[in-house]
Design brief:
Blueprint lengths: L14 H15 L8 H14 L5 H10 L4 H11 L10 H18 L5 E7 L5 H13 L7 E8 L2 H9 L1 E3 H5 L4 H7 E4 L2 E4 L1 H4 L3 E4 L12 E6 L8 H14 E9 L12 E6 L2 E6 L6
Parallel strand pairs: 1-2, 1-7, 2-6, 7-8
Antiparallel strand pairs: 3-5, 4-5, 9-10
Helix pairs in contact: 1-4, 2-4
């Protein structure tokens, strides 16, 4: 069976180069790269290499090895850690949020705090939080006057800035975004689509390494932590879930990726099916 084809003039990495990048990424982000990720490393680092006048990824890595740790090292880690995303990705969780979870939480909070807090952790270029913002604007006009605490973060500074700008290509808006939402919530500027400012400003975007302490977010009602844990080793996954327990309100909801689970990592979560989606809630009496 043929393996992946490397970009033109980009030879496969040497074992030593790959081990260097693997150690750099793991130290900076706790992301674990297995041996099958050589091609991913080359494809993700190639734009960074070219923008810094290196002919090959190997030349970039050689420079990283010889230079003191700095901005270029951080940008290399961010390039590799960036994940694919799309509007309303996998759809079912957004349907569950729209039809069941958000109405339930709003009903519970109405007589008391009138506060709703949501965190999209690992938001990449912003399609996930922007999808939530559009649902809130479209379906929950009753939240006018509420204290909405909407947060979105990513490891990559570049992705955070992209998400904050809310500017997308035609290809990106074609991936999962309903046509009525495109018409209602976006302005077309030349060949780009820009999310309207009032929707764009609903979320606070910030940089956060999820392998570190989560000190910049208060307690949340909904935490979207999708396709993050799968990149961590077991110890880091468990540490992350302990922090989820600290931040998630007792009746709040945690959303993981479809290939992720708390099973065998933290027994203080209950798996809850909501419509056709799976969420997690704190077990009764779970300690913080």
């Amino acid at each position: 069976m043929n393996g992946p084809t490397f970009p033109p003039e980009q030879p496969p990495l040497s074992r030593l180069d790959f081990e260097y990048i693997r150690a750099l990424v793991r130290k900076a982000s706790a992301i674990v790269l297995d041996d099958s990720k050589t091609y991913l490393v080359v494809s993700r680092l190639l734009p960074l290499a070219r923008s810094n006048n290196f002919d090959t990824v190997a030349a970039l890595i050689s420079h990283l090895q010889s230079a003191p740790q700095g901005d270029l090292h951080a940008r290399a880690v961010e390039a590799i850690a960036t994940t694919e995303t799309s509007f309303f990705r996998d759809l079912h969780p957004f349907v569950a949020l729209r039809d069941e979870i958000l109405p339930e939480l709003i009903q519970r909070r109405s007589p008391t705090t009138r506060t709703l807090s949501i965190w999209s952790a690992g938001c990449s270029s912003g399609q996930e939080p922007h999808s939530i913002a559009m649902v809130l604007r479209d379906r929950f006009s009753s939240l006018a006057g509420w204290n909405l605490q909407l947060h979105a973060s990513d490891l990559s500074h570049q992705m955070v800035e992209r998400a904050r700008l809310g500017t997308y290509s035609q290809l990106e808006v074609n991936r999962g975004l309903p046509a009525p939402y495109l018409v209602r919530f976006f302005d077309q500027i030349e060949d780009r689509w820009v999310l309207k400012e009032d929707v764009r400003r609903m979320f606070r975007f910030f940089q956060q390494n999820l392998a570190d302490e989560w000190s910049t977010v208060p307690q949340v009602d909904v935490l979207l932590l999708r396709n993050v844990l799968i990149y961590f080793d077991v110890a880091t996954r468990r540490r992350a879930l302990r922090q989820v327990r600290r931040l998630l309100r007792p009746d709040g909801y945690l959303l993981l990726g479809s290939a992720e689970t708390t099973l065998n990592l933290d027994d203080l979560f209950d798996r809850v099916r909501v419509g056709r989606a799976v969420f997690y809630q704190l077990s009764k009496g779970a300690g913080q």
